[in-house]
Amino acid sequence: MKITVVGAGAVGATCADNIMRRELAEEVVLLDIKEGLAEGKALDMFQTATLCGFDTKITGSTNDYTKTAGSGVVVITSGIPRKPGMTREELIGTNANIVKGVTESILQHSPDAIIIIVSNPMDTMTQLTLQTSGLPKNRIIGMGGILDSARFKTYLSMALDCPPNDIHATVIGGHGDTTMIPLTRLATRNGVPVSQFLDEATLQKVAADTMVGGATLTKLIGTSAWYAPGAAVAELVESIVRDQKHIFPCCVALNGEYGQSDICLGVPVVIGKDGWEQIIDYKLTDDEQATFNKSAEAVRSMNSVL
Ligand code: NAI
């Protein structure tokens, strides 16, 4: 399979690197509008093949979409990232134009691709792609919840002083500082609810830290993060190309599920070769459902500026 990553910036390049190291494709195409950037990063990455032991070919392209023809999966990371103090929502105007244009160009050459949206504000960019691309809804997946869940698991493991991989936990809802919902009730340490180890105040702090997890990194680094975002995209791509049927929280079009319609929002879905294949019902409590509805309202109001 050929996989295209649009945007060779911090997130796009890291994402391509992870996809190559996992050998998820025969060929990866990295595309950017900035002259030479994608070619340079692709060549640098290809030169790690003999060092890291993979055979995936990677090529770069400056805005030449013919090179992306026949891609099975396309990851869109093009757009501006936030700076310290900015919210993801402030990126909407610039990134909407970029994401719309990129999607049109991609589909001219890869009409059967599954599209993964990473550019922020991701929920709104996913909605935009659904509205403007004409693609079946199962082939449009917004990536944010996998990253937010990874951050949630990391903070939980730090609070519990246990290995991160002992933790199972999920973040649903929007991919925004105030719209994401870390589901503390369902978080477990090797099958045991984390509430058996942590008091309510600690659990609430972990949830709050998770929600501003991206902003914390942006403040420290000066721009948004890329290692975990790139790895999170690769995790999603792997479940598609290997048809693994993992359940991941992803931003998808809701049609009555979780009490919402006509909106793309983060819910647990089965991911396989056809994109997202099924929405899993976590059977939220009334309080969780009310929070989910609030998250949907906030995302809906953001979508209204499209
Ligand atoms: P970056 O600035 O390092 O890279 C963005 C790249 O997009 C640049 O190289 C730029 O030249 C390119 N670009 C701009 N317009 C383009 C166009 N029309 N066609 C092709 N390429 C174009 O930014 P970074 O850090 O890689 O972030 C990318 C996006 O991902 C941002 O919107 C950021 O907020 C978002 N993000 C989303 C996450 C998520 O979980 N969904 C996590 C982290 C970042």
UniProtKB/TrEMBL annotation:
Its recorded reaction(s) are: (S)-malate + NAD(+) = oxaloacetate + NADH + H(+)
This protein's UniProt keywords: NAD, Oxidoreductase, Tricarboxylic acid cycle
Q: What class of enzyme is it?
A: oxidoreductase
E.C. number: 1.1.1.37
Q: Where is the Lactate/malate dehydrogenase N-terminal domain?
A: 1-142
Q: Record-annotated residues binding NAD(+)?
A: 7-12, 32, 95, 118-120
For the ligand (substrate), the binding residues are 82, 88, 120, 151
Catalytic positions?
175
Tell me the GO molecular function terms.
L-lactate dehydrogenase (NAD+) activity; L-malate dehydrogenase (NAD+) activity
> What InterPro entries does UniProt report for this protein, alphabetically?
L-lactate/malate_DH, Lactate/malate_DH_C, Lactate/malate_DH_N, Lactate_DH/Glyco_Ohase_4_C, Malate_DH_type3, NAD(P)-bd_dom_sf
Tell me where in this chain the Lactate/malate dehydrogenase C-terminal domain is found.
147-299
Q: What does this protein do?
A: Catalyzes the reversible oxidation of malate to oxaloacetate.
| Entry similarity comment | Belongs to the LDH/MDH superfamily. MDH type 3 family.
Name the chain's protein.
Malate dehydrogenase
- Give the species this sequence originates from: Fibrella rubiginis
